Automatic annotation (TrEMBL):
Protein name (Swiss-Prot/TrEMBL): MBL fold metallo-hydrolase
Pfam families on file: Lactamase_B_3 (PF13483)
InterPro entries membership: RibonucZ/Hydroxyglut_hydro
Source organism superkingdom: Bacteria
PANTHER family, per database record: MBL FOLD METALLO-HYDROLASE (PTHR42967:SF1), METAL DEPENDENT HYDROLASE (PTHR42967)
Transmembrane segments: none
Length: 237
């Protein structure tokens, strides 16, 4: 059993038997911690809405903790609020692999900034996209949008042999009618049990929109509907 808590925007807390995984936290309240568990904190890139510096205060709570930060984050960022680089920080660029507390961590290259994360832990597979998405902006050139499409599809194709238990994927309403292209491509090209839409800027109506899209008909039962910050989900896997 895995417990998923939505913290806000692209921030999620995943709790397993012996470990927590915290993804892209910059807002939202934490639950009461089990201090006997280990903690791995993931930051996909340096944008403010994915990288809250208060994550470093978790060192005061967990005796076994590791930070996995994308390589685009400047080390000087660590010094914010009096914190400095420590041995518990690992920097990962695209297409790298690390083993942390028994979790095999693999990165994909984001077509925006930083990385996406794929985790293998205890027979489970978890994907957090960060800002890897099909960013089709009407105001951009055809050349730019074609490049974004190709890079996104290329990265998602790398996941086709995976059996993903939980995925966290952007559905940004600022993209207009194209908001669902990324999640649709992801769900149709991967074998994913449950997907949590994210990066929707507090617009919870996006979930009703997803249920009305013809393209989502084949996987609507696998879309987890988020209704508020702090909401929890129990996932059997």
């Amino acid at each position: 059993m895995m417990k998923v808590t939505y913290l806000g925007h692209s921030g999620f807390l995943l709790e397993m038997e012996n470990i927590y995984c915290l993804f892209d936290h910059y807002k939202g309240e934490f639950p009461e911690w089990n201090r006997d568990k280990k903690m791995v904190v993931f930051v996909s890139h340096a944008h403010y809405d994915h990288f809250g510096k208060e994550i470093f205060r978790l060192r005061e709570t967990f005796s076994e903790i590791c930070y996995i930060l994308s390589s685009d984050i400047d080390p000087s960022e660590y010094a914010h609020a009096g914190f400095s680089p420590c041995s518990d920080i690992i920097s990962m660029g695209p297409n790298e692999e690390k083993d942390v507390f028994g979790i095999k961590v693999r990165t994909l290259r984001s077509n925006d900034q930083g990385v996406a994360y794929l985790l293998h832990c205890g027979g489970r597979t978890i994907y957090h996209a960060g800002d890897l998405n099909w960013w089709h902006w009407e105001e951009e050139s055809e050349v730019f949008n074609k490049m974004i499409r190709r890079t996104y599809q290329s990265e998602i194709n790398k996941l086709q042999q995976e059996k993903i238990d939980i995925a966290f994927v952007p559905v940004d309403p600022r993209l207009g009618e194209q908001y669902c292209w990324g999640i649709d491509c992801f769900m149709k090209r991967t074998d994913t049990k449950y997907v949590f839409p994210m990066h929707f800027w507090g617009n919870y109506d996006i979930f009703d929109r997803l249920m009305l899209e013809k393209c989502t008909e084949t996987y609507q039962d696998r879309i987890m509907k988020i209704e508020r910050e702090g909401q929890t989900f129990l996932i059997e896997a």
